[in-house]
Amino acid sequence: MLTANLMAEKLPLIKVVGVSASGKSTLVEALRAAGWNARPVSQEHSDVPDLWKQFGFPRILIYLDNDLEGQRRRRPDVSWSAENLAREKQRLQHAYEHADLRINTAHFTAAQVRDLVIAFLEANHVRRSSTPLPPLPRTGGSGKA
């Protein structure tokens, strides 16, 4: 019997990048619960343009976007600014250009984003486990998306 970690290694890798408060951790959690080998990449905090490619090249790269209002709605505990958002988008430009799927999550619920991504993965025949994969430590905020 394969352990969950070995099982995940044999599944196609899905990486999720995006601006702060776009729902990366929430989406990864939902995809792993559905059996997909998804991992977040905290590229928005890095000046390494191709960080998303390191530690395993993804079969699918998903880019989540958000606007300033959406960030403030999801994380009212943080002082967001247009300058910080622009800086994050600049850091994410390489990932944005290479993304297989881009979603602006500003006006979607977490469930709607999950459903859009699952439909995309299924349409592209991305294999998944028949059982949930273990959750990963959360990288972001409150878990509200």
UniProtKB/TrEMBL annotation:
It comes from the Bacteria. InterPro entries: P-loop_NTPase. This is NadR/Ttd14 AAA domain-containing protein.
